[in-house]
Amino acid sequence: MTNPVRPASTVPQGYGSRSLAGRETTSLGDILERVLDRGVVIVGDIRVNLLDIELLTIKLRLLIASVDTARELGIDWWEHDPWLTSKDRDLVEENRRLRRRLTALEEDGLVEAREDLRGVTRGGATGERSRVPREGRD
Amino acid sequence: MTETGTYVYAIAHGAGGPDPSGLEGVAGAPVRTIEHAGLVAYVSAVPLDRFGEEPLRRSLEDLDWVEATARAHHRVVEAVSEAVATAPVRLVTVYTGEEQVSALLERRHDDFAEVLSHVAGRREWGVKAYAGRPAGTPSSGGREQEGESPGTAYLKRRQASLHDRDTAWRHAVTEAERVDAALSAVAVASRRHRPQDPELSGREEWMVLNGAYLVDDDLADEFVATLDTLRGRGLDLELTGPWAPYSFTDIDLGTAEAPDDV
């Protein structure tokens, strides 16, 4: 077929991570960044609930863009500060991982909470009230 | 027999596109085309027991599945975009049948035509800029003064170390802005993606620029030459591409049929 546009032929290999010969070596991150950047949206008659898609994009966001702002990078410097002992560094790293997961879980929780709001709020509150005094008496 | 849906990869101008028969789509399915009103959609059939609403919900949680699907999607988009002006469609866009795709081409004809004329004869290039993290040892102010306590000396060294990092960061960000401005001047349009996490980029350095640039094919050489003049000023510049114009063909297909519960 016609192939009028090939500026890549003017570019020597080695400039980029992606060579013409090795298309499969294209970084997955670069691909996902492009095909998912605007979020996965199912159109037409088949559509995955947008709330579920939020879960996916949260996961991918952790992969693709956990480094976002200069401030975050600033925090990162401390975490990789060679003045800190390696033990401290591990703790800081673990702390960061846990904070990320907490954020993701909180978002999940919000989603579920929103879904559950309709039916559960009343019953849950009643159950809570009846439980608390009983524990107080013991 | 399993019901099938129609998976859409990209929309292109009707003429000049590649023969779809040689293309393999997601889940190994052969790619075909649906033409309507001067536009052509590249599609393939997908089994709804894998690509229906419920199964997709589970599949999208599986990053291996997402990777295989994304790569297959990308392969088709690349093949089409190398031959003809192309508007890639988002990953996992599934219609129940060909009639619905024809209806889409009819309904959004003008939007597609506008986007396609914007990207015709142009391709997307990616440029990432990395800045090395400075070494932990401070370059200045670390010497212990006479009569100074070890504690004070330590704090001074530490302060100097942080100061060095701060200076390096500011310098890198300023340089990245300069690189982006120079490349944008050659490009028709530009867009900045978020910097990638080291885990994803595979590099320890700070990514201070993750840009996408839509460049006229005639100016591709100039774009690359411009990038070369920007090298050697402290940033490691990485060029990828040319890509299909993923970052410049944003058409919200969902708007017309937004779910009523959101």
Structure description:
The complex is a heterodimer of chains A (138) and B (262). Chain A has four helices and no strands. Chain A has 138 residues and is mainly alpha-helical. In chain A, helix 2 runs antiparallel to helix 4 (86-137). In chain A, 62% of the residues lie in helices and 0% in strands. Chain A starts with 27 loop residues before the first helix and ends with a helix. Chain B has 262 residues and is α+β, with helices and mostly antiparallel strands. Helices cover 39% and strands 26% of the residues of chain B. Chain B contains eight helices and eight strands. In chain B, the strands form two sheets. A four-stranded antiparallel β-sheet of chain B has the order 2-3-1-4, sandwiched between helices. In chain B, strands 6-7-5-8 form a four-stranded antiparallel β-sheet. Chains A and B meet through helix 1, helix 2 and helix 3 of A and helix 2, helix 3, strand 4, helix 4 and helix 6 of B.
Write the layout of secondary structure elements.
The complex is a heterodimer of chains A (138) and B (262).
Chain A: H1 28-35, H2 50-64, H3 70-79, H4 86-137
Helix pairs in contact in A: 2-4
Chain B: E1 4-13, E2 31-36, E3 39-47, H1 48-51, H2 53-59, H3 63-81, E4 86-95, H4 98-107, H5 109-119, E5 122-131, H6 150-186, E6 189-192, H7 198-201, E7 206-216, H8 220-229, E8 235-243
